[in-house]
Amino acid sequence: MSQKNDRAKEQILKMSGVNPLKCMRCGKCSGTCPSYDEMEYHPHQFVYMVETGEIDKLMQSPSIYKCLSCFACVDRCPRGVEPAKLVEAVRLTVIRQKGMNHMTADSIPALLDDDLPQQAIVSAMRKYSK
Amino acid sequence: MQVNEYKPLIVAFCCNWCSYAGADLAGNNRLNYPADVKIIRVPCSCRVNPMFILRAFQRGADGVILCGCHPGDCHYTSGNYYTRRRMALLFSMLDYLGIEKERTRVEWVSAAEGAKFAATMNDFVETVAALGENKRLEDLRCKK
Amino acid sequence: MKRIGVFVCHCGTNIAGTVDVKAVAEAMKHEPGVVFSTDYQYMCSQAGQEMIKAAVKEHRLDGIVVCSCSPRMHEATFRKTAAAAGLNSYMVEIANIREQCSWVHKEMPIGTEKAIILAKAAVAKVSLNAPLTPGESPVTKRALVIGGGIAGIQTALDIADAGFPVDIVETKPTIGGKMAQLDKTFPTLDCAACILTPKMVDVAQNEKIRIFSYSEVTDVKGFVGNFDVTIKRKARYVNETLCTGCGACTEKCPMKKVPNEFNLGMDNRHAVYIPFAQAVPKVATIDPNHCLMLKSGKCGLCSKVCGAGAIDYKAKDEFLEERYGAIVVATGFNPISMEKFDEFAYAQSKDVITSLELERLMNAAGPTGGTLLRPSDHQHPHTIVFVQCVGSRCEACAEKGKEYCSKICCMYTAKHAMLIRDKYPDTDVYVFYIDVRTPGKNFDEFYRRAVEEYGVHYIKGMVGKVTPENGVLKVQGSDLIDNRQLHIDADLVVLAAAIEPDKSARPLATMLTASMDTNDFFTEAHPKLRPVESPTAGVFLSGTCQGPKDIPETVSQAGAAASKVIGLLCKDKLLGNPCVAHSDEMMCNGCSTCEKVCPYGAITYEDKEFRMPDRTTKVRRVAKVNEAVCQGCGACTVACMSGAMDLKGFMNKQIMAEVDAICK
Amino acid sequence: MQEVTRDALLNKALELLKNGTVDRVLGYRVGEFSYDVTPAVFENEDALKKDFCWNSFCGANFSKYLISETAKTEKKLLVFLKPCDSYSFNQLLTEHRFDREKVYAVGVPCGGMLSGKDLREKVESVSDVSVNGDKVTVKTLFDGDLEFDFETLLSDRCKNCKSKKHVAYDELLGEDGEVLDSHRFDEVERLEQMTPDERFAFWQGELSRCIRCNACRDVCPACTCEKCVFDNPNSGVQNKAAADSFEEKMFHIIRAFHVAGRCTDCGECSRVCPQHIPLHLLNRKFIKDINSFYGDYQAGAEVGSRAPIVNYTTDDPEPSEAVERGHGNA
Amino acid sequence: MRKISLSKLPELFSAIAKTSALYLPVDTKAGAKFEAWAVGKTLSNALNTVRSAKDFFFPQTENLMDFKVEGKNIELIDTRKECEDFVLFGVRACDVKSFEVLDRVFLAEPQDTYYKNRREHALIISTACNKPQETCFCGTFGIDAAEPSGDIVTYRTDDELFFDAKTEKGKKLLDALSSITEEADEKAVDQQKALIRERLQKLPLKDLKTEGFGSGKTAEFFDDPQWKELSSACLGCGTCTFVCPTCQCYDIKDFDTGHGIKRFRCWDSCMYSDFTKMSAGQPRLTQLERFRQRFMHKLVYYPTNNDGLFSCVGCGRCLAKCPINMNIVKVMKALGGREDA
User: What is this structure's pTM?
Assistant: First the structure.
């Protein structure tokens, strides 16, 4: 039995504006995902698990930080489901709920790579912290 | 039967192909609904002119209901779509004039939905009965 | 004032059990206009009908009200009775006191009261009834079939078989359509040409059938029984009657590099060409876009070699006008363009092909002579990936794909996979599917054979990306059941492209005033009751112009459409429904509002000269209803502001009289 | 204040007459007082010079006259169109009600019109009115001269002007304006916010004043029926006078319904009503509903457009839903 | 002659209303209108009501009789009732004159008993016009706004209302009101009359004359070419006829109530295309003919049949209300009757 979290589900649906019921389970999102192998839960699973209310599992999964937000899944989904927006919403929920940043400003210099464009650093900050 | 029990008068316009047949099916299945409902057969719900509806109220009807094929199932392909627009606008106008919106209704009843027909009529009669007599669109001259 | 007779039926106890029929008959005697009223056990019985006839004679009745069961049951019966008694059959109204009264109410007083009211409404209506006569129109006993694919061919053959002349209009130089391009057909795996080409020959040889190939319909006027159709015969620069189809011209033509559309551009043809060996009519056509003589006036080789003297560079488009009683639309389908699906690299790699292209690659008459070779390097592919539902069931990208299921792809992909594995057992075949849909006789068995006997790898999932890299197609897709992402190096990727109606359908629908859905498929008059008829009378639908279909379905619909056409052409005259709209010219504004809501295109306008009351004349635009086309829905009557438009049999006055009677 | 002067219009008319572009001119004729101008057809130069008038009281919508005037003769008619007239002009063309070939339309910018009727209710014994810029000077017989801001005297319909842009003309005098954000539905919304009882009381009060003079219908450029159902003894709804309050409602509901999707919101109905019934609020309700149910639609904005009431989509709102939306509840 | 302070008007009205129904002009959002007096209602200052006072004798719709229909039986029911006495307060000179015009139609043999019934039970209290409007031209028809007719004539000064009873009926009412009115002399009234006459001289239409029109002049005007131009803008609505105090045409119709027939009459308008429509159609086929009919009736036909009396009283309502501003003044000026004619 999966742990259902209907309130969190509702919030995620609201935040993302995604209707997972539109999904016809073709798997094209996962077929197209460049981070597939990095992820514990794959884009199509995000859609399915949000629909069934298994939000907690998703929130605890590192998968939410593995998504590159490349939006390939959004672009290619034949039903307009937009899985990346769900990933984003779960990620935001985690950040909001726990007040827990995936990374802090202090930890950044250590992670820096000279080749990393400035833009990417800023967008990562935006994505991974409050 | 109580002597003074208020009985609303309901005029139901039914399209020949779906709703009139649905009413017939309700009869075939002996599904009861109040005798207050009197059905007028029209070829299609789009035959119903707003003037007929006002006329019914003028002559003493307490509620008017239009029944047609489900959208997409019209025998004439598009008639009920026109009905839907016309009645949406007409009913909104009647409501704007302060006439109780519960007195008018459009319901899609297919030829297979005898039960829906009976249930719709039971519900509509009950709703209109709760409102009482039509005062706002009555013509005093037509009162007995 | 009318002389109305009222006949109240007991229907055994069906009515009499809950309605005091004697009281109803008695009450009706006092209604204005009623001169006779009675009741009887079974009005619909022979005796009951005799009773009505006798009463009509004895009381000189000119209107009849039967209080009985639903008019949907016995209205026709009593109309015949009235006609037999010398009355117009439309002088009958039915008060439905069974289904809508005695059967739904329990108490006698209530049932009786309502029955009286319903009877009064019927009397009120019949008082205003006017005799109606169905309009008659002659039927031209000739049919037009638009489209010469398998649907059109089958329809034409079936109609001709019944003895009626048929014309086929086909835009291509030959009939045959998509089926002629197919290699084998599912689920029997018989060769398409083997079953199609004999039919094409039948068509060519049938005296009742004329083929207007390389032609199109440019105008349609008229209505059921009498359509006046203009057909444009495009100049083919070869005299059809003289050409023997010997092919000498094509051999000598110096323009050899014209992409061959029959093989989907995978090889070339000449500027003068015969699409394929079994083409019907088997005559050459000069492609004006590539012919040197037509473009620059220099060449003329084909003319020199033609022994029959059939080449005519001066030919012009010709227009024919023909009259038909019925029109069958069989305009068919095309696969949608794959250009916009970047993820599958269709535009980047020659080795990403559509299923229809695969058909040609596997066909003995195709560009590779039937050996499966990659288009890029003509090598045998060893790993082949099929992608299902490309552009089908695609709601999000309306500009690329289609929301509907294209229906045929699951089966032809199974066929392809099976044929490849059969012929080239060393090939790995993967099929990415979302669902496998196989409803049809022997269909699922067929699909299972592909998996079980031929070892085709069916993967539940979708391909996300195809990347051409060093002569290999890197296919990345998901396997939802194994929950992993697959990476396959394929030699050939085959896309099951969605199908869409032919582009010629939309303008044709406008000409025919036949309705279409948002996907440009023709709408049937009723999905269950009239599935092969368009709502426009006299226009019938055959094949995929109405929706995705496989060959068995197409052929059966073609036969059904033909039988409907035959049923129509058998008649010498069409009797219309007399309950049609009628416009009072004196009140008509000519505003074109009614025309907009008419689903049948039954309303036209004409400028008419009127003598005004002040003795001047005035030309006014007024609506005219074509009674043969009008189906009597009444949409126009409400759209008409002035009330000029009314519906016979359901006139404004009649319905209002019913309302009044009920609300008394 | 009108941006274009009488002389500009007169000269244009004279020029077009002279060069043969037109044979007749539909314009306003001077009246007894400054405010009682009358639409008139001028057949020649002298008549024009003598009686042609253009001032801030020239509000009547000319479009409807084109039906009868173009039917009379083959001669070409010059018509001056204010922006609001041009919408009616197009709507009539959409309905094939007159021959465009017989009309030469000159667009005239409009700075809003005054209404003689309204003015006379504000001021007693008016002897003369003159407009200077944004001021209006009203001379009276017994109370001396009074001065008003033009805005305050602006007729009701011009206060909610929907467009200063012409949608039809052969030639334009002066500058064209823009489609405006008119707030024209504010009053409708106010009524929608009322309770049904209040709404009923409001309309009962308004409509009970109706004397069935038919001025609203006869002036309406959408009411162009060869024979109106209310004049037709065979229609079953004919009546000459409202003998019961029902008939007032019947007439006005059906009239509004018949012009729904065709009414350009020119405001003539309310302008001419001798009983001050705000009839435009009925028409605007339909316009507002059509906009909100089926997407924005402006009758007359273009020739040949298909009104939403003779159109449909497969996912239109159901009537019950629509009534709720009509309240602004959705 | 009696008078009362304006501040005591409510008392006066309440005293009158005690004995009979009282109607007087009150202000509404749609202009002045005759309404039944009730506590709290105040007299309008407007010169004239939007609708004329003819409604009281010739209402817009009126039930004449009923037929009760049961099956094939028809029973005739006389719906007439004796009218109650009522007082019509504040009627202007023009409207009072209009009653004379109507009387000549409805009280001529055979008398219209419906009209007569109401007329006999009415008491008219008229009011002189302190502040006539630019649209007034009652003088053209010999009406003196300073000296109206009526059972009682009233004059209003800044703070008082003066009463002058002209008939027995009026005297009786005035006597009954003696406890709240006081005796007055003629002086203030004479001053008021002089003021009114002075103001009448300032009216722009004061010189409009009826010369040329009147009894027997049909031939002079019937085929005048100007009718075409005058009528060309006419919309054919009935506004002028419905606000007119002297228009007296009506139609009689039957209304089917579902259980019987109500026979009623209602105002009709010669401007309507279905006016006096018969089986062969409407005798006046064009708007020109209908337009001409209205003005010829006012200025020629009626005087011909009524000793030269014109059936226009110059109230100016049609000038105010016509949607396209065409009216009897413009017609008279165009056809003759100018100052210089």
Answer: 0.78
